[in-house]
Design brief:
Blueprint (H helix, E strand, L loop, with lengths): L1 E6 L3 H10 L7 E7 L2 H10 L4 E4 L8 H11 L4 E6 L4 H9 L4 E4 L4 H49 L4 H10 L8 E9 L10 H24 L3 E5 L5 E7 L5 H20 L3 E5 L9 H12 L2 H4 L4 E3 H7 L5 H13 L3 H17 L4 H21 L11 H9 L4 H41 L7 H8 L3 H12 L3 H19 L4 H7 L5 H12 L3 H8 L2
Helix pairs in contact: 2-3, 5-6, 7-8, 12-13, 12-14, 12-16, 13-16, 14-15, 14-16, 15-16, 16-18, 19-22, 20-21
């Protein structure tokens, strides 16, 4: 719909035209009506319109003055004069001021409709042409921006020969003759792993990356700090440069911090920036770029929403006692000590962060930990189907985490589960040995040569290990169990047979009847003879 304003000093004319012309039918909306040109100009300033339908003779500002003013200040606005004067001078002025139609009163609603339809067709054509021109201009600007970005990216990455890069820079009007250069690579933290995004997230990331580029470009231009362009991977690249080297380091950091702050404040989005070191030759800019990319890798260790400066990272790198850390973890897994394991993984995470391990180096250490756990499971003879997950599965899960904290958490949880599993297997093994030992004792308690050593020899296990697992499983020692069984068998023989004491002693594994009597009284509080008399009554 086109907006039209009616201007006439006669109220009856205004009312008649307003009510009789079916504006919507012709593609118009009557925006309002005014009594004179002065009032019309004030209305248009408040509420722009597309067409003005005006009388000529009016007080204050007449139709011709209004047409002249509109022609000068609003050249795209269409003017229709509706006049009672068939005057050639008026007509000439109307043509001079770009009036589209000069209509004589009286005029019917149908005649007015024909004029409006004709004018609408003309405006539709103009708008279509304007849209095409606008689209061509946008396409041209986009093409120029793409050429500019491509040329700048080729320079930053060193991906073309120097002569060719020089020609591209000249084509886009980029003349770089600075004393020092420095590259920064900027990514949105939430979209740092673009290969894991679904289609919706990819569309969102493209929009947010556009905002990131615009904000970065505005800050760089305002600070006169260099150039900014957007890559196809949703990242923004800054080529910072200056001929005033004194404050360049401070300026570069301030630009980076301001970009992070603006994105945090305006978009509530975290941003990571990798900052390479300074180079003094244009041909070496790619070195600073590669360092900026390297610095971004430390987001994994140091966390996001920060500037990662390669010079600071390299100065702070140290070597950690990784072997000692892994030995402690292995010990506490074997002991199933969850409290110490939690401390171990806090120390592992803090150590890797403080020593500034990059992502690849940290991944190697995490893989060593997984290999160590796999070896513990193998040595404990844990079958593959008994394991929580395969080595490959748990390693893939750990290495897929976006940050060190998450990766260590996955590894720590796995260690705790392995510790519990190994401890459970110890208990199962202990109960197995205990059951086998009890069966052997039941069958051989009458052998006076039966001992801890003979049982261990039968089970093929060391005496110290057997003693520990037997007591853990049975709650008492081997000798206490053996003596208890022998005394129980002796009580049964004393109660239900007429066997002599020395015969019973031999039957239950004592080759000395006197020692048998002492042992029996110690357990029951009575001598064998006293016990037999009492039970045989």
């Amino acid at each position: 719909m086109y907006r039209i304003l009616l201007v006439d000093d006669e109220a009856l004319i205004r009312e008649a035209v307003s009510e009789n012309v079916k504006w919507g039918q012709y593609g118009y909306e009557l925006a309002g009506s005014c009594e004179n040109g002065e009032e019309a100009l004030a209305f248009i300033e408040r509420e722009p319109v597309d067409v003005v339908l005006t009388d000529i003779c009016m007080p204050y500002v007449d139709g011709m003055e209004l047409s002249k003013k509109l022609y000068e200040d609003y050249p795209l606005m269409k003017i229709i004069i509706l006049s009672g004067y068939d005057d050639f001078e008026y007509a000439k002025k109307a043509i001079r001021y770009g009036v589209k139609e000069y209509l004589l009163k009286p005029i019917t609603a149908e005649e007015m409709g024909d004029v409006l339809l004709k004018l609408k067709a003309e405006m539709d054509k103009e708008r279509k042409t304007e849209r095409k021109i606008s689209e061509l201009e946008r396409a041209y600007r986009k093409g120029q921006e793409r050429l500019y970005s491509d040329a700048l990216l080729h320079l930053i990455r060193g991906s073309k020969a120097e002569e060719e890069i020089g020609r591209e820079l000249k084509t886009v009007g980029l003349n770089l003759t600075a004393a020092v250069y420095r590259v920064a690579v900027i990514e949105l933290d939430i979209y740092s792993q673009a290969n894991k995004l679904d289609e919706k997230q990819k569309r969102e990331s493209a929009l947010m990356a556009f905002v990131l580029h615009n904000i970065s470009q505005e800050i760089v231009m305002r600070c006169e700090a260099g150039e900014a362009c957007q890559g196809k991977n949703q990242r923004t690249y800054l080529l910072l440069h200056t001929s005033r080297t004194a404050d360049f380091g401070r300026m570069a950091k301030e630009v980076c911090y301001e970009i992070i702050g603006q994105m945090n404040r305006i978009m509530q989005l975290a941003v990571n920036i990798g900052l390479g070191s300074c180079v003094t030759e244009r041909e070496k800019i790619y070195v600073s770029y590669e360092e900026a990319e390297e610095a971004l890798e430390y987001r994994y260790i140091m966390g996001g929403n920060r500037m990662l400066e390669i010079d600071v990272i390299r100065a702070g790198k140290k070597q950690a006692d990784v072997d000692g850390l892994l030995d402690e973890i292995a010990l506490h897994v074997r002991e199933n000590d969850s409290g110490k394991l939690e401390d171990d993984f806090d120390e592992l995470e803090n150590t890797l962060r403080e020593c500034l391990y990059d992502r690849r180096s940290a991944a190697v250490i995490l893989q060593r930990a997984v290999d160590m756990l796999d070896e513990l499971c193998r040595l404990s003879e844990m079958e593959k189907e008994q394991r929580i997950a395969s080595k490959e599965e748990i390693l893939e899960k750990i290495l897929s985490m976006e940050g060190l904290e998450e990766a260590v958490k996955v590894l720590g949880t796995y260690c705790l589960e392995v510790g519990k599993k190994l401890d459970g297997m110890k208990n199962i093994g202990g109960r197995k040995y205990a059951v086998q030992a009890m069966d052997y004792i039941e069958k051989n308690y009458g052998d006076c040569e039966l001992s801890l050593q003979s049982v261990c020899s039968y089970l093929n296990i060391s005496a110290s290990r057997f003693s520990a697992i037997f007591k853990q499983a049975m709650g008492t020692t081997f000798m206490e169990v053996l003596t208890g069984i022998r005394m129980q068998k002796a009580k049964e023989l004393l109660e239900y047979t007429d066997m002599k004491n020395y015969e019973i002693a031999e039957r239950v594994g004592f080759n000395d009847s006197h020692y048998f009597s002492i042992a029996f009284k110690k357990v029951t509080g009575e001598t064998p003879t006293e016990y037999a008399k009492k039970m045989r009554r």
